[in-house]
Amino acid sequence: MSESTNKSGGWRENKWVRAAIPALLLHCSIGTVYCWSLFSQEIADYIGFSKGATEWAFSFAIFFLGMSAAFLGNIVEKDIHKSSLIATICFAAGMALTGFFIWFGGQNKGNVLALIGIYVSYGFIMGVGLGTGYLSPVKTLMLWFQDRKGLATGLAVAGFGAAKAIASPIMTSMLSGLGEGGIYKMFLILAVVYFVMMFVGHLLLAKPAGWHEPQGKGEKPSIIATLKTKPITNYIGIWLMFYINITCGLALISQEKMIFKCLGFAGIAGILSTISAVFNAGGRLGFSSWADTMKDRNTIYKLIFILSIAFTGLVMLTSGIKTGSGNMALAILVLALVYVVNAGYGGGFSNVPTLLSDHYGMGSISAIHGITLSAWAFAGLTGNQVASMIVKNTGKVEYIYEKILYTKESAAAAGLDVDALLASHDMIEVNPTGYQNVLIFTIILYVIALLACLILVKPTDKALEAKKKK
């Protein structure tokens, strides 16, 4: 679309108003799903269940995000207005119903209906809103910003990553300021706020006037036919490296607050987590914009995996998580690992739709992208759950008191009453060896992902043409 057409068409033909702003409104709303860790313990205490029981609500939300994207990708392809409206209604309704079932659980402590209601509301209903909301603006952005597709999708997906950094202080303030029952009141209030934001995004979102969407049998090939234009191993490679990148990211991110505490940063763990969210969002925008300058976008994944392997390997060799509390250089190395993984995790998300469009074209990109997001669904069930299992079953419990790491024996020798200090929250229970062992799991997967990236995913036609010109 020419600049003159863009100007003469006014706001109705403005790519920022019709694509970028609505994408940010949608993604900055649904991205708050990653704030779950802020209030999961409070929900558990309020309804009378363990934190482990309530954690499944988040895992279900990520699972149904991916699966709804996979199964509803064709609806997004045909009608972004219908899909963005479905996203708006499901996300806001799921959040409001979560608030209702938290209230119900508070009135009826230990009632399993409250827990099931939260699973259905936050996990399934919100999950459908997440999947359709995530997909809806992506193709539209690539159509409006055809010369800088990576920048456009990176901007929107960065909104998804930045949502946690933006919403976290607001939610924390609401939880403390709303008094008794603040946890369910927060959900009800935010349901209204996010409905308004997403509905405005839904109204503004539109494809360029000059875009003709293929509809007929002769015009629009099936998804299977589109995927067959390349060796099937090519798509398997993209799906596999996307799945592994999310799994490894979730495995480390789910433990990052406890890792920060192991390093002696308990007092600023919240600030360090916010910085993680900034790296996550920055990676989405930075890596995707950088990929716009490359002949083959797959190169960006090679860089992500090499950086992740290098920093993970360094922390493993130095036992940084176990020994970082008394060594500032090692503590900084562990922080660097967490931030590199966060940036790569975000960059992996933002480059998937553009990498798929480079390989398979724009005709069925929403549907193909949706199927690929099924990797996110399965990673949501494996990443943090496997990490938790490793931490639970390996290593040993140790204690942080006044930035010093103690075993049970050394604490007793120092005359410390472990039980009393834990009860007063002056002492923190950690498992540095368990967190360190999570890195064995992630580095193996990162190596597999790099091999898939190098062997299975072939260069795009654009990259091959550029190579011939040399």
Descriptive report:
The chain is built from 21 helices and three strands. By secondary structure, it is mainly α. It has two domains: 12-205, Growth Hormone, Chain: A, CATH 1.20.1250.20; 229-396 and 431-456, Growth Hormone, Chain: A (Up-down Bundle), CATH 1.20.1250.20. Strand 1 and strand 2 form a beta hairpin. It is globular, with a radius of gyration of 23 Å. The two termini are 30 Å apart. The model is unreliable at 1-8 (pLDDT under 50).
Which descriptors would you attach to this protein?
Growth Hormone, Chain: A, 3 strands, 3-stranded antiparallel beta sheet, globular, 470 residues, mainly alpha
Rg over C-alpha atoms, rounded to the nearest angstrom: 23 Å
What's the CATH architecture name of the largest domain? Up-down Bundle
What structural class results from the helix and strand content?
A: mainly alpha
Describe the global form. Answer: globular
Strand-residue fraction?
under 5%
Walk across the major sheet and give the strand order: 2-1-3
Do you know the CATH topology of the largest domain? Growth Hormone, Chain: A
In short, what is this structure?
It contains 21 helices and three strands.
Write the layout of secondary structure elements.
Blueprint: H1 3-8, H2 15-30, H3 36-47, H4 51-78, H5 80-107, H6 112-144, H7 149-177, H8 182-204, H9 223-227, H10 232-253, H11 256-262, H12 269-291, H13 298-318, H14 320-323, H15 328-360, H16 365-372, H17 374-393, E1 398-401, E2 404-406, H18 408-413, H19 418-423, E3 427-430, H20 432-455, H21 461-469
Antiparallel strand pairs: 1-2, 1-3
Helix pairs in contact: 2-6, 2-7, 2-8, 3-4, 4-5, 4-6, 4-16, 4-17, 5-6, 5-8, 6-7, 6-16, 7-12, 7-15, 10-15, 10-17, 10-20, 11-12, 12-15, 13-15, 13-20, 15-16, 17-20
